[in-house]
């Protein structure tokens, strides 16, 4: 009798605790769940309708058009905190500006060989300068290691399918080992406070080309060529990435005879008037003229020019230069 009761009790427990079809829960506030599923929350755009360049992307889900203006403003706000000092080379013990230029020139070739994104190159150069600023006694023998490690980090951060770590070591003709590159990766990331997200001239360039309603592909490529050339020039660190991008767009539109060269809309989004960019425009012009004339250092930095001379880039680096006398 006792055994029969135990079996019955056990069966009752099993019945009560068995998993069945869950009951539909009634919300605490009737109708709330249906409201939540249908409400579409969108941020308020703080851009004057006259200068709105993002709402046209409403149909593109990945564009995040609602947040584009806010993201751009954030980039403008933080760019000055994510760049190296334009005078850091004055305190370098064993590395100089010429070595930096040669390193960047070589990295452009590596970047092109591995078919990496433009943003990857710009991030890599930013990481190099910020690391060098924090490591003023870096031996020149380790400069190439810094460069290839920066490109390795930028690739992992930006690319969908980055090259393998061994590929970066191999491209140095095995001058370094994998363990040395991984050690440098730790040192570099630590020196920059692990802040790899940086506004670059390439990002700003795309924004300003859109604001200027530039639709010609060759003009886009020419602007890209100009800002990539600036990566090789240490003196261009004196200008924030947004100004380099703006000057590049200005020069590209001027070279391609696009009218107007600079509009109120692009001035609004870039925050720069032509007068405000005058010195940057002048330095960019001198940089390109020196390269074209084969003057000293500029004539030896050929990677960007060779890259943009290819058919893939419509040979924009071979276009004749047309610069104005002044930029007022």
TrEMBL record:
Keywords: Cell cycle, Cell division, Cyclin. One of its GO terms (molecular function) is cyclin-dependent protein serine/threonine kinase regulator activity. Transmembrane segments: none annotated. InterPro entries: Cyclin, Cyclin-like_dom, Cyclin-like_sf, Cyclin_A/B-like, Cyclin_C-dom, Cyclin_N. It holds the Pfam family Cyclin_C. This is Cyclin N-terminal domain-containing protein. Residues 199-322 form the Cyclin C-terminal domain. Belongs to the cyclin family. GO terms for biological process: cell division; mitotic cell cycle phase transition. The keyword Ribonucleoprotein does not apply. The keyword Cell cycle applies. Residues 105-190, 203-286 form the Cyclin-like domain. It comes from the Eukaryota.
């Amino acid at each position: 009798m006792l055994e029969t009761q135990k079996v019955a009790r056990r069966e009752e427990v099993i019945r009560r605790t068995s998993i069945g079809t869950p009951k539909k829960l009634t919300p605490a506030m009737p109708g709330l769940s249906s409201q939540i599923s249908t409400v579409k929350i969108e941020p308020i755009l703080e851009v004057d309708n006259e200068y709105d360049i993002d709402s046209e992307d409403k149909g593109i889900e990945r564009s995040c058009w609602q947040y584009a203006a806010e993201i751009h403003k954030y980039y403008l706000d933080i760019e000055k905190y994510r760049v190296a000092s334009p005078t850091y080379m004055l305190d370098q013990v064993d590395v100089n500006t010429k070595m930096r230029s040669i390193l960047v020139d070589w990295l452009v070739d590596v970047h092109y060989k591995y078919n990496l994104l433009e943003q990857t190159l710009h991030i890599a150069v930013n990481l190099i300068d910020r690391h060098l600023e924090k490591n003023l006694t870096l031996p020149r023998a380790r400069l190439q290691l810094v460069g290839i490690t920066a490109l390795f980090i930028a690739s992992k951060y930006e690319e969908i399918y980055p090259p393998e770590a061994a590929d970066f070591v191999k491209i140095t003709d095995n001058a370094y080992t994998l363990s040395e590159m991984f050690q440098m990766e730790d040192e570099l990331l630590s020196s920059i406070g692990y802040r790899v997200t940086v506004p670059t001239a390439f990002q700003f360039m795309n924004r300003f080309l859109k604001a200027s309603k530039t639709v010609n592909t060759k003009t886009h490529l020419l602007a890209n060529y100009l800002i990539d050339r600036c990566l090789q020039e240490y003196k261009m660190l004196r200008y924030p990435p947004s100004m380099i991008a703006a000057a590049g767009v200005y020069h590209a539109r001027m070279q391609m005879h696009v009218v107007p060269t600079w509009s109120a809309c692009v001035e609004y989004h870039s925050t720069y008037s032509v007068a405000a960019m005058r010195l940057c425009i002048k330095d960019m012009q001198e940089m390109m003229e020196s390269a074209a004339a084969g003057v000293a250092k500029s004539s030896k930095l050929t990677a960007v020019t060779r890259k943009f001379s290819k058919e893939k880039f419509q040979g924009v680096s071979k276009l004749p230069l047309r610069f104005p006398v002044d930029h007022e």
